[in-house]
What we know:
Radius of gyration: 15 Å
Shape: globular
Low-confidence stretches: none
Strand content: 25-35%
Number of strands: 7
CATH architecture: 3-Layer(aba) Sandwich
CATH superfamily: Vaccinia Virus protein VP39
CATH topology: Rossmann fold
Number of domains: 1
Mean pLDDT: 87
Number of helices: 7
Structural class: alpha/beta
Amino acid sequence: MVSGSVGRFFDRAATGWDERTSASSAEHLASLAAGLDALSLRPERVLDLGCGTGAGTLFLAREFPTAGIRGVDLSEQMVHKAQSKIGLDPEGRVTFRVADASRLPYNEGSFDLVTQVNMPVFFGQISKVLRPGGGLVLAHTRGDETPFSTPEPLIRRKLKAHGFGSIHSGAVGEGTWLAATLEAPA
């Protein structure tokens, strides 16, 4: 489980987060968008890990207008800010909740797509909640300079060890992305 001190840090950082990080800007979301393009999926259920104030989650809701989108974050304050951005959503397609990415509260195979922007990768949890054939997008808005960035060779090794294949990566602007598909068990 991730330390409570990390959650408290992001609780304090929530005020003014969007302004400091330009989280909703095209530049900030470009690496996520490029990773999605590499997968060419039309998911029904999407999980956005480390959703922060919801910029990426809401981008995913626009990209996939018929999918159910779930955003989770360790910080209660970040989730509160994200929820305030939903507006009218009579079908309840987009929801946010406080959750630890190291212990996700979802059943095996719950999602067709898992995404994350600028956070550590919890390989075992992702491969658990993702359906076989489902996709994963890891985006870093400042490439290797992004806090919590993991070197790509290590990510590729870990993904292969957790059953992922069709691993592609690239760069857009200052950001980098990696997209992969969870293979069906043999």
